[in-house]
Predict the structure.
Amino acid sequence: MTSDESREPVLDAVVASPRPTIVDVAEAAGVSRQTVSNALNRPDKVASETLERVLREIERLRFTPHASAQQLRRRRASAYGFEVNPSGHRRLGHILDEFLVQLTVSAPSHASHLVAFAPDPDDVIAGYQQILASGLVDGFVLADTRHADPRPPWLLERNVPFVSFGRLWDLPELTRWVDVDGRAGVLQAVRHLAEAGYAQIGWLGWPTGSPVGDDRRQGWADGISGLGVSGDAPTAEAVQDLDEATGAAARLLDRLGPDAAVVCASDLLALGVLRAARNRGLEPGRDVGVVGFDDTDVAAAMQLTSVHQPVAEAARSAWDMLVGPVSTPGPVLLEPFLTVRASSRRDPTGLEGAGTRATPEHGWADDPPGTRH
Amino acid sequence: MTSDESREPVLDAVVASPRPTIVDVAEAAGVSRQTVSNALNRPDKVASETLERVLREIERLRFTPHASAQQLRRRRASAYGFEVNPSGHRRLGHILDEFLVQLTVSAPSHASHLVAFAPDPDDVIAGYQQILASGLVDGFVLADTRHADPRPPWLLERNVPFVSFGRLWDLPELTRWVDVDGRAGVLQAVRHLAEAGYAQIGWLGWPTGSPVGDDRRQGWADGISGLGVSGDAPTAEAVQDLDEATGAAARLLDRLGPDAAVVCASDLLALGVLRAARNRGLEPGRDVGVVGFDDTDVAAAMQLTSVHQPVAEAARSAWDMLVGPVSTPGPVLLEPFLTVRASSRRDPTGLEGAGTRATPEHGWADDPPGTRH
DNA sequence: CCCTCTCGTATGAACGTTCAAGTCGCTACT
DNA sequence: AGTAGCGACTTGAACGTTCATACGAGAGGG
């Protein structure tokens, strides 16, 4: 209203290109810095008329708060570190890459962003220490938690916020994780195969001892006993390597009767089954059912039925847990779903192509009526 | 030397946990803020004795400069945006994911870091605009440049630093890109197949019109004519889809004589050839040579010879171009290399497993004596 | 009528650096 | 001898916010 105390050369138009500051907006709207700040951060504290005027000026001047200044003053980066690995063990499947993408997609709704970093493999903790000490990030999203992982204890000790994608098997008292219920996924696979009419369902997994692998195998065991199909339920083991898998699959097929199916702990292992089957003239789907795990693009390419992880939902949960109130979520265990393709269909529907699709093809849309526990 | 003007309670030990600031270091070393700053940023401006003392205190107090404060004062974020996409077209191969990882690995040596962001697909530019206006990033690394991509002109107009992974086909005057010489890669593949003794070498590519695909095809054409193998050199086309590829491959095989080989524009297309070959009882490698492109993990899994892109080197070049002096690099075109697997070996060496390896297996170590133009 | 309370807004200071412009002492040129 | 120049270091200010606090006006209570 009273607008004649500013005697400096007031220009109506946006003068130069240098980014406008909060002070420019304040002057233009005839209020103080703080009111502009409030208009953005605590709109309820500003009289509605003033608020409107300020917001109008913000729009007109195309003002965007300067992130570094906010970070400095707020003493918070609103950023989180995500460790990426020069794919030594970039096994089949970029679940983690996809997880990073989904985290990034969800970041804005938490007024945060992600900073990628690659610690020295010889001293991973130092990498975390450094990026944290610089104030570049407030915390971390862990993925690919190893057995006896040094990171969770280290972070815990320093009170650094973090969340893990993948259960913290070593630290049962910790609840800040999201994971996908591998057991439930494999259970679904077993039921699906039983319904499809396969006479016998075997398991091809990793050597016992890996928590993830054991969990998935448990799903198979539960499925088998639940069906009462019991009788004979052969299993085989192979490490994550195609040749090994092919060999193990061949031996497994020897022990399975006709019309059998195999559920696998990974798409790569499943690939081994496909290969072993073809080697003896069996057509996947028609002659032997095969189901993989992870729904990698290889699975899509090979028309392999596979258990799909709801990565987008996992990312959302991770954010909630990371930035939400300390009280909120507890651990989250998500139910995966099956992407059915030709490798588990006995009917010859898909013969002209390579299989029809009952489920969203690439699956990447993610998250059906996603269930959570 | 003179150390008795500080009368405040001087504590020798690190007192509280709040992060030490440059002032704490200054006091501890008996110098001014600016000298500490200089010790870190312009060591040549500091007397060696003082320098040593300051650095010692920095170490002792575990001082790390506060990134936000630096960014604010320097008016530079030393950060660059990298757009990630919710993998609609996450076709076979995570070249881009791997590129992101390698960029991240190289970031520290340029005193920079990467911020991932996912713009609204309906207004990509707005996403760039916003993250830029907030001062969170100084520039961008583009990847997956589309035809008629709006981003390069937009960035150019605003003088925003950027570099592209992938040629800027639309803007020949722009030189700030790194790319992999697809033509040269395919040429290598053709020569390799000829040496291996395949009688005839066909091409399975994408429909004409995509710059990348046409470039790769040119490598095949060059290879064929260079070898004088000429005569009959059939080609076929398919879009990036396994069924299409399998069909096209079948038709292509019909037109090829015995002992022929096929070079493909992608691993997925090559997968189609493998499949078509097996459908008619041909053993890849022994009966028909197959080479793919991208050296995805699918290629590794299927023992498919493939052209490997030196992604790590590409990332390094991208950084050089992005943060280096305006004068430096010009465009960089990197030579890919061939990862040879069973699918292009006529001898039966690999029969017990699935093929022996002449080249670093997973290839991810990247970058042989990487050649650059 | 005075006192207290609340609401809306304003002011000074601070966050932790680096820039720009000093000061001081010494050397070396004219 | 005067002074310009240089090297080593210091000081005030600024970067653009938000925190903590203060202020003034009006409402409500005794």
Remarks:
- Residues 1-16, 350-365, 367-373 of chain A have pLDDT under 50 and may be disordered.
- Chain A touches chain B through 59 residues (CB under 8 Å).
